[in-house]
Amino acid sequence: MEVLDKLTEGLKLFSADVAHVHTETALEPELGSKVDDLQIDERLKNSLKNIGITRLYKFQEKALEEIESRKNVLIISGTGTGKTEAFLIPILDLALKGEKSVIVYPTKALARDQLSRILRLIKNLPINVGIIDGDTPKIERDRLYASPPDILITNPDMIHVGLPLSPNFRRIIRSAEHFVFDEIHVYEGVLGSHLRMIIDRLKEFTNDIHIIASSATIGASPYMFQELFDGPGEIIEGTKRRRGMAFHILVNSKGMSRWTLAAYLAALLIKNGLRTLVFTDSQQMAEVTAKIADRFGVNMQVHRAGILPSERIKIEEDLKNGKIMGVVATPTLELGIDIGDLDVVIMAEDPPSYSKYIQRAGRAGRRNRIGYIITILGDDPIDSYFLRKPEEFFNRKLTPLPFDTTNLEVIKVHAAAYLLEKGMIKLDSLPPLWVKALKELDKEGKVKIVNDVAYATKQTKIFVINSSLRSTGPIIKIYNGEKKIGERELPVALYDIYPNAVYLVSKKNYIVKDVDLNTLVARVERVDKDLPYYTKPLYDVDMVNFTEIESRKVYGLPVKYGEIEVRISVHGYIIHDFYSKKENRGKEIEYDIPLTYTYKTKGLIIKHPILDDFSLIDGMEAYHATEHVLISAGRVVAGASLTDLSGISYPSGHVVIYDSVVGGSGVAKLLYDRLEDAYEVALDIVGKCDCEDGCPKCVYSPYCGNNNKMLSRKKSFRLISEVIKGKATSCDNMWGDSVS
């Protein structure tokens, strides 16, 4: 408990304190057979023993038996509990029998990290392993195409474009018998829909491939496996964490800057010999936290997207080898990249979901070491709720993946890619939704259908080449003089790149001089001296135009679906002192002319009534809360992830819910089609919550643009109840009151 005592004493310097300590203990996972007694190749037995594996856990042995029997499985076990070995050992044994496999990781970085782990196991085995992704040099691709590996490592994006565009890549994929999908908790929402369509393409609408999946943090069921992989599968559960103990510590910041506290606590623990990883959800706040740590006498590196891959790899290696003791990271280190044994994970802000919390917490205290997981809570409504009810923070349930297999926008992308691979397809050989998707593509001029046969055209290829599973927006390139120092994707780029913003790259200071959204170029200027402040944007999000595609009545309310123009307007910024004691202290600077970015997406507009006894404030609280809860209901009825949908609510009763990505993703359309069901789910959420008038379980959102102000669970419950009863019909004129 010495570490807890040091934390408690250290926090007193900032008038903060430890609000709650949750102790987690775990026994050794149930042991299975000794390696010598397994029914696997003798050469593999020797390799396992050479790296210290002499006995399997029971769940690993079960996975071995099921996979060798060609059964589809989903392995669920905590970070560092041997989940990877559970699928890798049988895959290697099958490779020694001449059977080929493909291992699919969600990111290139994770794939390359896991390669070293696999190579260690096959050091003396006649097994070839190779990676093909967007970063694979041509000479290496040619080598792998000439001599296909026993195990190919890749990612979903490469499979998506590789199957139709590369005959050599297609030959390797089509010759594989076993497919492993690791870290499947990443595939929620639209990305999960994309993964299901890739599975359909790999199977070619049959069930003749063998699927193995794994995850550390997911609530799963055979039904979820069936939906994601279109076939039956067995769930094999390991353990939440390795043997040992972890202390989960909630810190009440009491108004102190969470970034200062995170940096101070990291410095305190690093000076006491503890390897420490700090998580933030913002690239620039990761940089800010690392800069503040300098003041406390420790050098923490920054690991985030937007820096060179070589820099990220060096940071990972230096942390693993003990050359550095601390790193501040965005979710880039959330997945299973090997960074060695960590003692402490500090979360500068509560992660947006419990599965992300578990994933990050699992990085500390591995291999029988005590782990310390510190979460800094502020005074916003979500954090305040958990400070009042800390046990609920740790009693949350892991939920199954939300995704929808009927998202037509997603199916169109894969139907075009599949057609491009085949050249021509008879429509009667495809599932009904794929036929519908191809017919829409035909209307759009992207494919050609003649006599119920679809043909790929030049436009099909262009469409596939320009498609993306990640739905990326335009990219702003950032230059210091003639040197490119980074890039950021719109629209989120505007939250970091705006005139006079302090932009940090590997703790180096830059000032943004100019942002040209026409050329997608930002110019920055290096500042040699350390700046004592950082900046945050002041911005508004609004709907500026709507083009109707269709409309209908939902419980008597007019609802329209169509193309929405969303405008982000950065009208100034706040200057925050790095070392200010209060998180909300800052000087506001307003621009003469705002920086605006308008993009098109798709969404729905609902016109709610103004209830007779509701004041203006009552209505705002009801509409805002209903916006939040309908978006939450979208996870149930439309398979939305946490970030697939965004919303805007107006005092007039209009609620706008739209796809978060540029161009749209199809999720808002599913919500529109199933809005009656969404209202029913929303009523259940606001009606059965036991909070006073709003909490994270009902109407608070981690992505709320105004920090969860003007929300009322009770007023939302009243409004939704009236809507479902059909008593709250609004005027037929959708625009009876202006939404502006």
TrEMBL record:
It comes from the Archaea. It holds the Pfam family Helicase_C. Keywords: ATP-binding, Helicase, Hydrolase, Nucleotide-binding. SMART domains: DEXDc, HELICc. Gene3D superfamilies: P-loop containing nucleotide triphosphate hydrolases. Residues 64-236 form the Helicase ATP-binding domain. Residues 264-409 form the Helicase C-terminal domain. One of its GO terms (molecular function) is 3'-5' DNA helicase activity. PROSITE patterns: HELICASE_ATP_BIND_1, HELICASE_CTER. GO terms for biological process: interstrand cross-link repair; nucleotide-excision repair. This is DEAD/DEAH box helicase domain protein. The lineage of its organism: Archaea, Thermoproteota, Thermoprotei, Sulfolobales, Sulfolobaceae.
